[in-house]
Amino acid sequence: MNRIKGYFIRKKSEYTGSHRSYSIQMTISISFTIVSVCSVCFLSIMLYQQFVNKTKDITIERTEQVLNQAAINLEDYLRNMRRISDAMYYTVIKDKDLGYESMGEEMNLLYEANKDNLISIACYTNEGMLVAAAPVANQKENLNVTEREWFQEAVSQMENFHFSTPHVQNLFDDPSYRYYWVISLSRAVELTNDGKSTLGVLLVDMNYSSIEQLLSKANKDNTSEYFYLMDSSGEIIYHPKQKLIYADLYQENNLNAVRYDDGTYEEVFDGERRLITVKTVSYTGWKIVCVTPITSFQMGITDMRFFMVMLVALSLLTVVVINQLVSAQIAKPLQKLNGSVKEWETGNLNSDIYVGGPIEVEHLGRALRATVAQIRQMMQDILVEQEEKRKSELDALQSQINPHFLYNTLDSIVWMIEGERYQDAVFMVTQLASLFRISLSRGRTVISVEDELKHAGNYMNIQMVRYKDVFDVKFEIDPEILCCCTIKLVVQPLLENAIYYGVECMDGEGEILVKGYRQDEDIYIEVRDNGLGMPEEEVRQLLKENHRVRKHGSGVGLINVHNRIQLCFGELYGLEIESVPDEGTTVRIHLPYICYSEKTRDKLEAGKWRGQ
């Protein structure tokens, strides 16, 4: 009993030495703290995300307001240009017969009234002939306006107004040699000449700088975002970095943005996440686009982050204090129960187990008290099992060499000496000595496969002398397994059985093969004979505990070998038997692939390998 108590104490020391343990109070405190911190962090992240989303919504709303205002201003400007075109068409052109009247004076008056926003007004026939122009009526020579895009669009779609992209106006000879960037508004008009109606084109050139100033003002009011204007095909009309774009030093995602409907979208362009807000300008199909980098939302978020960190820190401190108080109250009865269990672990099975505290702890104490009696019985069973194991090992060792085998061997040696066969006698004595030396193995149970096969070889050398010309033996061993571990005296009993129950009476036709090889992480040693064999029913009974065979060998039976292998290596290993009547028997030893060393040997003999 004292030995078993000492065993449990050692096991406890080994366990506590290799596993760091924590008190239940610490466990509860840490667990509650982790849960609380995670909850606080989750709520903080949610609040932070709400703040970021709200900031984003505010930014988008403000951007849409600015964009709408810019669109309204631009629409007012374009609407004014349309009014000028309508005034010229409906009050001048329709009232004039070009056969005997001129529209130049009225056109000049209309230009003078709106010259802050205009560059020129001109009217052409459908053949491209200039009818009138203001303020300059001297058209350049060899100029064919019918090839101009604004002219072709007006003629092909007569019912619409047509706005061009920014371009340099170079239709007329300007005495000041100044040429302006303009946006042309063209439309088809009906001209009257000698009472006959013909098709013409009215051209109103707007000053591009007016549109540029209008959108530049919107860009100056916003440092983190910018606005640009493009036509319905995606060609840029205005951009704050227009010169860089023309020089291919800057790129804009306008060809993708032109496909967007009015609204706000998120995109990634040149590795930058940004929001795109689009607003379509009436009458033209133009689109004003506002680009807002996502990084602009970070304004004011730094303070929010600091607030979240402080909130988490304060919550953590509060949670730790509260958890310490709560966990101490919960853990106190458990600590008392643990103290009584520790005394019991020292080997004092008569110690009083604490019973008290909450219902669960009280029930646990009572259950532990009831367990003590069961453990006492289990310890007694272990004692019996250990004693049986010791007796089994002693029986196996005592019956390793049959006195009958030893007597026959010594008798053969005497007979050889009397017959003056001294070399054979020396050989027999040497083999017998080697056989005994490996059998003893300094009291070790685990030896290398190489030593075990040497022992088997010595045994077979002796038997070959005794059974001369009765059978042949052959060893086919993979060198890779010679360094592995095995239980001693597992091959020799199989060879005995192969001789006595297999090939002893075969009159020179007997063959015994010892084959060793590795397969995956296991090794196998087979003993095959071509002897009498046995039926399948008998094979199934050989490894059963209640099976007894006639004594004819060393006394170390197959069940003994099988049990000792499983006792050392586990139930996955042991003997496997295959036999066919009149064909022979194969007994296969199944062992794990474990390299032999003193450390491994000691570990196996101490029973610490099983279950690993």
Primary descriptors:
disordered N terminus; 18 strands; six-stranded antiparallel β-sheet; Beta-Lactamase; 612 residues; 16 helices; alpha+beta; Heat Shock Protein 90
**Ranges with pLDDT <50 over ≥5 residues?**
1-5, 11-19, 550-556
How much of the residues is beta strand, in percent? 15-25%
Specify the structural class: alpha+beta
Helical fraction equals 40-55%
Inertia-based shape:
elongated
Briefly, what CATH class of the domain at 399-605?
A: Alpha Beta
What is the CATH topology assignment of the domain at 399-605? Heat Shock Protein 90
**Mean pLDDT reading:** 79
- The radius of gyration is 53 Å
**CATH H-tier superfamily of the domain at 399-605:** Histidine kinase-like ATPase, C-terminal domain
Oligomer: single chain
Q: Summarize the main sheet.
A: 6 strands, antiparallel
* Terminal-residue CA separation: 27 Å
Task: Give the topology, please.
Elements: H1 2-18, H2 24-91, H3 104-113, E1 118-125, E2 130-134, H4 149-156, E3 162-163, E4 167-168, E5 181-193, E6 196-207, H5 208-220, E7 226-230, E8 236-238, H6 242-246, H7 254-257, E9 263-269, E10 272-280, E11 287-293, H8 301-345, H9 359-398, H10 403-418, H11 422-440, E12 446-448, H12 449-466, E13 471-477, E14 485-487, H13 492-503, E15 510-519, E16 522-529, H14 536-541, H15 558-569, E17 574-580, E18 584-592, H16 598-605
Parallel strand pairs: 13-15
Antiparallel strand pairs: 1-2, 1-6, 3-5, 4-5, 5-6, 7-8, 7-11, 9-10, 10-11, 12-14, 15-16, 16-18, 17-18
Helix pairs in contact: 2-5, 2-8, 10-11, 11-12
